[in-house]
Structure formats: structure tokens, C-alpha cells
């Protein structure tokens, strides 16, 4: 199992220098990855008055400050981006980091705030269509080969976006969604990893082992290519006591989780403040037996 740190792109972490400091601390403490949110307003009434940073600028700062840890968004709402622009951002970061990008994608939310506030559709079906079509286009763009595409939502005519990504054939793509909703996990099974939240365990709360086991079984049934590695990312707050941390995380690893993503609870303010997050990072990742 590998271990990552998860931070939002607002509050203290809207500053690229702060994110670079966090990334450096995470690498020095032995963490394997640093993942950032990709929001414009999040829940706009709750975040009113808070600064936001562009996640790609923040991840660029993190890439320049490190040499080993994986980096990426958890998660980018592809339907809120132009695929050609997003493809350039990911490829540029992948080149800058020496092939360390993991691309997390999802429907995005809260939909009314993140989409409706700017006059975009709030129809989940349409957003899901744009997500699926956009993901396919991203994979094509990252190849560096000529792309011709005439889809329901996007068009590309004889374009080549160079350079291609450093990672071949492309960076890993992880897909987020809520379990036991099956549609997002069917989507996840077509790519390289699943980042589930659970209706019984939201951000910052470790999922019940049995529910994770059910999800992993569903993903295995849905996957058509089992010859390549596949990641399942779960997370929460790991206990400070090593034995308690092992008791929480090891059953999840046995059930099929491959990453533990250290997250703060959404309640309160600790999750967007540097001091508590940095304090946890410097303690290092959990140690499993």
C-alpha cells in the first residue's frame, strides 16, 4: 500500500509557496503522493471570502519542489474544462515532474455551485456525457498523434498536441464517485483506478471494510483488462497510535485498497489550514506490518 496527502486548493493552500512547502515536507517524511482538489468556488456560501488557487499552478509549484512523490488532482471535473486545454496542462505537468502525474477525474460538485453559478448546465446526465467523451479525448491528445473527433459535445479536426505525455501510453487515470452508485464505478473500471467516497463514509472517514470489499468485487467484474495494475484509493484520518492505525488500514488493504489518502474531516477549519495538515505530514505515513 502507498500513502498520500490530500489538500484543498483554497484557504491556506491557495498559495503556491505554501503548497510547495507541503510537498517538500511530504516527500521528506516518506509519503508517496500529494493530491489537490480542483474547485472554483466549492460550496460558495461556506467558502465566501476564502482565496482559491489554480490547481495546476499549485501542482507546478509542488513538482518544482520535489523529485519523487506522485502529484495530481483529486479530482478534476472534466466537464468544466476544455479537453484540449486540460490535455496541455496535464502533459506539461507530466513533463515538468518527470512523469509523476496521476490524473484524478470525476463529475465534480457541488454541481449547482461549481457549474450553475457560471451559467453551465446542472444536468448530471449531460455532465456525465461530457466527462466520458472528454476522457476519451484526453487519452487521444496525450498520445501526441493526430486526432479527428466529432462527438456530441466536442470536436477536434486534424490536431496534434505535442509534446505527448512522458508516461506512455498516458498518465494513470483514476475516477471518483460514490459507492454504491454503480455508474461512476463502471466508469472507473474502464480506467486505471477508483477513488470512491461512500454514502456511509464521506471525505475524511475511512469506509467500512465490507463495503470496500463489495466495491472491489464489483470493479473486478467490470474490468475487461486485468493484465495491468489497478488502484483503489481510500482515505481518512489515520490514528496517531501506530497499532490503531494498523488496525484501521490493514483490513482495508486486505480488502483491495492500494492507496491510503490522508484526509481531514470537512467539518471545522483544519482541512484548509496549513498548521494541522503540516503537523500530520511531518509525523510520516502510517506503518503497516
From TrEMBL:
<dbReference type="InterPro" id="IPR050172">
    <property type="entry name" value="SsuD_RutA_monooxygenase"/>
</dbReference>
<protein>
    <submittedName>
        <fullName>LLM class flavin-dependent oxidoreductase</fullName>
    </submittedName>
</protein>
<keyword id="KW-0560">Oxidoreductase</keyword>
<dbReference type="GO" id="GO:0046306">
    <property type="term" value="P:alkanesulfonate catabolic process"/>
</dbReference>
<keyword id="KW-0285">Flavoprotein</keyword>
<keyword id="KW-0503">Monooxygenase</keyword>
<dbReference type="GO" id="GO:0008726">
    <property type="term" value="F:alkanesulfonate monooxygenase activity"/>
</dbReference>
<keyword id="KW-0288">FMN</keyword>
<dbReference type="InterPro" id="IPR011251">
    <property type="entry name" value="Luciferase-like_dom"/>
</dbReference>
<dbReference type="Pfam" id="PF00296">
    <property type="entry name" value="Bac_luciferase"/>
</dbReference>
<feature type="domain" description="Luciferase-like">
    <location>
        <begin position="14"/>
        <end position="216"/>
    </location>
</feature>
<dbReference type="InterPro" id="IPR036661">
    <property type="entry name" value="Luciferase-like_sf"/>
</dbReference>
Amino acid at each position: 500500500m502507498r500513502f498520500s496527502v490530500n489538500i484543498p486548493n483554497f484557504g491556506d493552500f491557495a498559495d503556491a509557496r505554501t503548497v510547495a512547502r507541503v510537498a517538500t515536507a511530504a516527500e521528506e517524511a516518506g509519503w508517496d503522493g500529494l493530491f489537490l482538489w480542483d474547485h472554483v468556488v466549492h460550496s460558495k456560501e461556506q467558502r465566501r471570502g476564502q482565496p482559491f488557487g489554480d490547481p495546476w499552478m499549485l501542482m507546478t509549484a509542488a513538482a518544482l519542489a520535489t523529485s519523487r512523490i506522485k502529484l495530481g488532482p483529486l479530482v478534476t471535473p472534466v466537464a468544466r474544462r476544455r479537453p484540449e486545454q486540460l490535455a496541455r496542462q496535464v502533459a506539461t505537468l507530466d513533463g515538468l515532474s518527470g512523469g509523476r502525474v496521476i490524473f484524478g477525474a470525476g463529475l465534480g460538485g457541488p454541481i449547482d455551485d461549481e457549474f450553475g453559478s457560471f451559467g453551465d448546465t446542472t444536468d448530471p446526465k449531460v455532465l456525465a456525457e461530457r466527462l466520458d467523451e472528454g476522457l476519451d479525448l484526453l487519452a487521444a491528445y496525450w498520445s501526441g498523434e493526430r486526432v479527428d473527433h466529432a462527438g456530441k459535445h466536442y470536436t477536434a479536426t486534424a490536431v496534434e498536441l505535442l509534446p505527448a505525455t512522458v508516461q506512455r501510453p498516458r498518465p494513470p487515470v483514476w475516477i471518483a464517485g460514490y459507492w454504491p452508485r454503480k455508474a461512476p464505478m463502471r466508469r472507473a473500471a474502464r480506467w486505471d483506478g477508483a477513488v470512491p467516497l461512500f454514502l456511509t463514509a464521506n471525505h475524511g472517514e475511512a469506509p467500512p471494510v465490507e463495503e470496500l470489499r463489495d466495491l472491489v468485487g464489483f470493479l473486478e467484474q467490470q474490468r475487461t483488462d486485468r493484465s495491468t495494475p489497478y488502484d483503489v484509493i481510500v482515505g481518512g484520518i489515520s490514528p496517531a497510535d501506530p497499532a490503531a492505525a494498523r488496525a484501521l488500514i490493514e483490513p482495508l488493504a486486505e480488502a483491495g485498497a492500494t492507496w491510503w489518502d490522508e484526509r481531514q474531516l470537512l467539518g471545522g477549519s483544519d482541512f484548509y489550514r496549513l498548521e494541522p495538515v503540516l503537523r500530520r505530514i511531518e509525523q510520516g505515513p502510517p506503518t503497516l506490518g
